[in-house]
């Protein structure tokens, strides 16, 4: 009997040693992954201390090697080829081989933020996505062209180094579950570049900018609770909680080599307003860039759309947040922002998830193509307020990024004008390309300020020569 027990013990010990000998990879390094082309791509994992891990790749004869550290971790940087649809593989060997198959070299972008980025192509309940069926039909021809990896939304008190996820090739079965904004971004990118596009979706609906900041930045810039019990007491809705979503949902991807970050967030910060939002967002971008360790990664983000916040279309809570977002773009290096003032239908006043996701994704793609891929003729900037001159009863508005023209000469909507009493009235607007936008109202004989779509829900109709909408603005600081 004792001899049998000894034999079983030896077999179990052998099995344990066998399992320990094989390298373990993070889930994001898996079959069907897209690696960033022509880069030194970071690969990592875990193994037995002291073991040598050799990494070989199908596109090169070079063999990379590294040693597992005392903490059980190993890292190696691998040079990747130019983008193509040619399937590749990567072999990890520490005495036993682990093979990652059907790898493609292409462009990898992160899709971060809250629910309007998370919103899948099939939509949320009572929140459809325009163009869904067309996109699903087309997805059948994009299997080797677009791939995505969805990171499960998870909270954690400490940063996680792995997440249960996998890379999926876009097809008619799984594309309904992909981020709609991400999909429309990737589709336009693939059409323009004809190379594989990979998306890493790390987002969570309802989150605030504070939800993604790490402990050090929260301590330095906010008064947010950082003890788990205090966090739960202060925020009954888990998606509003600080720290936890960044640790659990974003930290696992920080080792991956990417091209840039797409970000759509802000709605929850209307409910929890902060005059410091722009600086918090700038801090978050710096935090993520430091985490990826790839320098000033492109950061392209989306201004929140019109919505009836607090059941008040005429309120200004959301307008101030949009203003903070526009300010953030001016202080974040290598960043750009998309205007969505026209991406809502008039009947969607109470819809926090408007159905028009295609123009949002495509405008992000146009920025990326212009700034990162040599498409200099793509005009990707929305017009913005530059300055105002007052002449008698008329305020003359000058714009920048109008590409030498705007879209109309009459029927201007969304403008308001006020005098010293700070009461705003609907304005009449005329346009002369030699002068500018001339704003006036019979009710305001001595104007001092102009606002454009500076409400929770107010739709304008001014576009620049590229048919991109004018950013909401105000000339006052009231």
Q: Could you please describe the fold and organization of this structure?
A:
The chain is an alpha/beta fold and 478 residues long. The protein folds into 3 domains: 20-104, Immunoglobulin-like, CATH 2.60.40.10; 106-372, SGNH hydrolase (Rossmann fold, 3-Layer(aba) Sandwich), CATH 3.40.50.1110; 384-474. Helix content is 25%, strand content 25%. The chain is built from 11 helices and 21 strands. Strands 1, 3, 4, 6, 7, 8, 9, 10, 11, 12 and 13 form an 11-stranded mixed β-sheet that branches. Strands 14-15-19-18 form a 4-stranded antiparallel β-sheet, with no helix packed on it.
Keywords:
11 helices; globular; four-stranded antiparallel beta sheet; 21 strands; SIAE; alpha/beta; eleven-stranded mixed beta sheet; about 475 residues; Immunoglobulin-like; single chain; Rossmann fold
């Amino acid at each position: 009997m004792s001899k049998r027990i000894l034999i079983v013990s030896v077999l179990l010990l052998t099995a344990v040693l066998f399992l320990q000998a094989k390298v373990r990879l993070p889930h994001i390094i898996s079959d069907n992954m897209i690696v960033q082309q022509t880069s030194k791509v970071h690969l990592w994992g875990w193994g037995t201390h002291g073991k040598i891990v050799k990494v070989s790749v199908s596109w090169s004869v070079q063999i990379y090697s590294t040693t597992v550290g005392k903490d059980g971790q190993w890292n190696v940087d691998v040079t990747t080829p130019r983008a193509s649809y040619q399937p590749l593989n990567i072999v990890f060997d520490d005495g036993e081989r682990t093979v990652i198959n059907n790898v493609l070299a292409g462009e990898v972008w992160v899709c971060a933020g809250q629910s309007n980025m998370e919103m899948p192509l099939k939509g949320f309940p009572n929140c459809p996505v325009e163009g869904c069926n067309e996109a699903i039909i087309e997805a059948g021809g994009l299997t080797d062209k677009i791939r995505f990896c969805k990171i499960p939304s998870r909270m954690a008190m400490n940063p996680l180094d792995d997440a249960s996820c996998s890379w999926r090739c876009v097809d008619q079965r799984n594309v309904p579950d992909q981020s709609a904004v991400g999909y429309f971004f990737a589709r336009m990118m693939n059409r323009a570049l004809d190379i594989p596009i990979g998306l890493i979706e790390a987002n969570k609906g309802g989150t605030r900018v504070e939800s993604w900041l790490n402990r050090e930045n929260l301590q330095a810039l906010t008064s947010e609770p950082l003890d788990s019990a205090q966090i739960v007491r202060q925020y009954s809705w888990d998606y509003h909680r600080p720290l936890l979503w960044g640790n659990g949902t974003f930290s696992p991807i920080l080792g991956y080599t990417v091209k840039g970050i797409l970000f759509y967030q802000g709605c929850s910060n209307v409910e929890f307003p902060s005059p410091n939002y722009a600086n918090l967002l700038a801090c978050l971008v710096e935090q993520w860039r430091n985490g990826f360790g790839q320098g000033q990664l492109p950061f392209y983000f989306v201004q929140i759309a019109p919505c009836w916040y607090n059941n008040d279309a005429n309120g200004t809570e959301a307008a101030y947040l949009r203003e903070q977002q526009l300010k953030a773009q001016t202080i974040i290096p290598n960043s750009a922002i998309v205007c969505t003032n026209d991406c809502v239908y008039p009947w969607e006043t109470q819809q926090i998830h408007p159905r028009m996701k295609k123009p949002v994704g495509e405008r992000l793609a146009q920025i990326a193509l212009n700034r990162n891929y040599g498409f200099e003729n793509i005009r990707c900037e929305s017009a913005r307020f530059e300055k105002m001159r007052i002449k008698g009863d008329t305020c003359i508005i000058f714009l920048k990024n109008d590409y030498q023209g705007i879209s109309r000469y009459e029927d201007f909507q969304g403008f308001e004008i006020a005098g010293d009493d700070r009461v705003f009235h609907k304005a009449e607007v005329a346009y002369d390309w030699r002068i500018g936008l001339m704003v006036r109202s019979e009710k305001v004989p001595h104007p001092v300020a102009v606002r454009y779509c500076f409400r929770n829900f107010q739709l304008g109709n001014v576009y620049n020569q590229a048919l991109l909408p004018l950013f909401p603005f105000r000339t006052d600081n009231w």
